[in-house]
From TrEMBL, chain A:
Main location group: membrane
Membrane topology listed for this record: Multi-pass membrane protein
PANTHER family: ABC TRANSPORTER PERMEASE YTRF (PTHR30572:SF4), MEMBRANE COMPONENT OF TRANSPORTER-RELATED (PTHR30572)
Gene: ytrF
Signal peptide range: none
Assigned protein family: Belongs to the ABC-4 integral membrane protein family.
Domain MacB-like periplasmic core: 22-250
Keywords assigned by UniProt, alphabetized: Cell membrane, Membrane, Transmembrane, Transmembrane helix
PROSITE patterns: PROKAR_LIPOPROTEIN (PS51257)
Listed name of the protein: ABC transporter permease YtrF
Domain ABC3 transporter permease C-terminal: 278-404
Automatic annotation (TrEMBL), chain B:
GO MF terms held by the record: ATP binding
Pfam family membership, one: ABC_tran
Origin superkingdom: Bacteria
Annotated ABC transporter domain residues: 2-236
Family matches, as SUPFAM superfamilies: P-loop containing nucleoside triphosphate hydrolases (SSF52540)
Name the UniProt record assigns to this protein: ABC transporter ATP-binding protein YtrE
Length: 414, 237
């Protein structure tokens, strides 16, 4: 018997009991929608927390704090940087030496942090710019996104001109050990060639100035110690971060990666997701009782037809598959409708909840926070569970159909 | 075509734990050759329908063996029986046994669908069969909209649509009036002559039994051939 003919049989049979089939499909759809919705909360919270964690951070970024030398922690040195840079999975290593300073432009000035860095490494680490380009000589700098608005004149008005391509006076500040007061440690006229990318987290105000490390001596007093640098290693890809971090730790470096936090968080959310999918599956199982009931009634009602078909020469396999196609059809229709309902509910929840929370708690949830998120994997899993449960529900009735006694059916004795 | 060897059959009756076996057939031997019309008469409860159900694979014999068309079908599984019935045996029932929710066309088409034939082949075959049996005008009618004679023709068309070599008929005229009965018997004879169809007809009606070239009688679970009985009586005289 061809599959197309089996489907035709199933469609004819389903048409005869439209209202019963509709109610069963509806129950399955509600079960499937519940499963998706309840699990989508875990997916939504995970996504929101991970996004928040990774905001302004790269997953490939590794913060290097110090290294163990002779059993003692010591700051990251140029030698460490060279060694780490040479490692196979490392794309770049940046070192930021920092000190206080001032920036002045046409009578507007502000205090700032001077960050001395290696721009070649910054390029390799994909330092992102809002506009402009990376410096190509020692006299060129890039500045933080918010620097312009922090430049103020004596009247307190903010600088409203264009900072890109402007020449600014950058002054280093240092503590005079003899007078115990801040003094100028060096000064240079430098050209702004790039503005750093706007930070995703709106609470972060970036006003620093990034200067080539080759200029660092001219901003230091004689014998001034600028201290150890803030070092970051960048892995070649997100997949190798864990392995690289492990290797660095084995070599005695203390470090932090966003992946560490993400992994911990993902473990917690995985347990939560499994629990919620399990709870949601109970709803689908309840719906499956309806499918079982519908299919059992269908077998009982069609017992005579089945008996005639068997008498004529219907193979048990064909009888079984006709009923399994019917129950899986109910499952597929229910799952599809349930998925559409779940997507609609999810969107509604994400729109409706923030103002409710804002009104109830008098505080806004973070920007971009989602309560319900339905990834494709959840949809596929839920549809799979719903259809699988529907097929399982139809198995016993299908076996009953196969075992129908031809003579009893022909005598209308069933 | 049909070979029954020492067939015994008994039914198990009563509740579980208190069952009793009731023997129905007591060692039946029967041979029906290809192209023969065999009729089997007997009183109600004599075991003639049980014998037909054994030959059709709806029951399994308690003892003995059954060969149909040279194949030993005694130990066939249900799946094997399904395939075998589809290709070797056509059934005609007293109550026609048409599927009420299907039209006459769809009922006749059913074996072709089960065989997995294409829609165009099915269409041609069903059309041809309906014309041959004079029911072409009733293709879209449901069984409840047909007379007994028309329903029986639909049943015959369905039974023969795959050209099986054997037709088993269980009280086929039981629900027909005398005119339809006469037409039906004429049709069986024609099919036998045209196609060399082997027929086994179960009946309690002597007029129907008269069409058989081989006539059997079932009495208390024992089978005898009527012609052989007559020869014995003749010899005794």
């Amino acid at each position: 018997m061809k599959m197309a003919d089996k489907i035709r049989f199933v469609r004819q049979n389903m048409k005869k009991n439209k209202s019963r089939i509709f109610m069963t499909v509806l129950a399955t759809a509600i079960g499937c929608a519940f499963l998706i919705m309840i699990a989508s909360v875990a997916f939504g919270l995970q996504k929101s927390f991970v996004d928040e964690l990774l905001r302004d951070r790269l997953l490939t970024e590794i913060d290097l704090y110090n290294s163990m030398k002779d059993g003692e922690p010591s700051p990251i040195t140029a030698e460490d940087v060279r060694r780490i840079s040479a490692m196979e999975r490392v794309k770049a290593v940046t070192t930021h030496y920092m000190k206080g300073g001032e920036v002045e432009l046409d009578g507007f000035e502000t205090t700032t942090t001077l960050v001395f860095t290696d721009f070649e490494q910054e390029k390799a680490a994909n330092l992102e710019l809002e506009e402009g380009r990376m410096p190509e000589s020692g006299s060129e700098i890039v500045v933080g996104y918010h620097l312009a608005e922090h430049l103020k004149n004596k009247q307190g008005a903010s600088y409203s001109g264009r900072l890109l391509d402007a020449e600014v006076t950058v002054t280093g500040l240092a503590m005079d050990p003899k007078k115990n007061e801040m003094i100028e440690s060096g000064e240079a006229r430098l050209k702004v060639v790039g503005i750093l990318k706007k930070p995703a987290n709106e609470r972060n105000m970036e006003t620093h100035v990034m200067i080539a490390q080759s200029l660092m001596p001219s901003f230091l007093l004689q014998d001034e110690d600028i201290g150890s640098p803030q070092a970051k290693a960048y892995a070649a890809s997100a997949e190798v971060v864990a392995a690289l971090a492990k290797e660095l730790r084995e070599q005695g470096y203390s470090l932090y990666t966003a992946a560490d936090s993400v992994n911990q968080m993902e473990t917690i959310f995985l347990v939560m997701k499994i629990g919620l999918v399990f709870v949601g599956t109970i709803a689908v199982l309840i719906a499956s009782i309806g499918i079982y009931n519908t299919m059992t009634m269908a077998v009982t009602e069609r017992a005579q037809d089945i008996g005639i078909m068997k008498a004529v020469g219907a193979h048990p396999r064909s009888i079984r598959s006709i009923f399994l196609i019917e129950s899986s059809g109910i499952g597929v229709m229910g799952a599809l409708i349930g998925t559409v309902i779940a997507y609609g509910l999810s969107a509604a929840v994400n729109i409706a909840l923030p103002p409710i929370i804002a009104a109830a708690l008098d505080s806004k949830p973070p920007e971009g926070f989602v309560f319900s998120y339905i990834p494709l994997s959840l949809t596929l899993l839920s549809v799979g569970i719903s259809v699988g449960v529907a097929v399982l529900s139809g198995m016993r009735p299908a076996e009953r159909a196969v075992r129908i006694d031809v003579l009893r059916a022909l005598r209308r004795d069933i | 075509m049909i070979e029954l060897n020492r067939i015994k059959h008994s039914f198990t009756l009563g509740r579980k734990g208190n069952e009793r076996r009731v023997p129905v057939l007591h060692g039946i031997d029967m041979r029906v050759g290809k192209g023969e019309i065999a009729t089997l008469v007997g009183r109600s409860g004599s075991g003639k329908s049980t014998l037909l159900h054994l030959i059709g694979g709806f029951l399994r014999p308690t003892e003995g063996s059954i060969r149909i068309g040279g194949q030993d079908v005694t130990a066939f599984t249900e799946g094997q029986w399904a395939d075998f019935r589809l290709s070797h045996i056509g059934f005609v029932f007293q109550n026609f046994q048409l599927i009420p929710g299907m039209t006459a066309y769809e009922n006749i088409e059913l074996p072709l669908v089960l065989r997995g034939l294409s829609a165009s082949v099915r269409r041609n075959r069903v059309k041809e069969a309906m014309e041959r049996l004079g029911i072409a005008d009733y293709a879209d009618h449901y069984p409840a909209e047909l007379s007994g004679g028309q329903q029986q023709r639909v049943g015959i068309a369905r039974a023969l649509i795959l050209d099986p070599p054997l037709l088993l008929a269980d009280e086929p005229t039981g629900s027909l009036d005398s005119e339809n009965e006469e037409q039906f018997l004429r049709l069986l004879r024609e099919l036998n002559e045209e196609r060399g169809l082997t027929l086994l007809v179960i009946t309690h009606d002597e007029r129907v039994a008269a069409i058989g070239s081989r006539r059997f009688r079932m009495e208390d679970g024992l089978l005898s051939e009527i012609a052989a009985e007559a020869e014995k009586e003749e010899a005794l005289r």
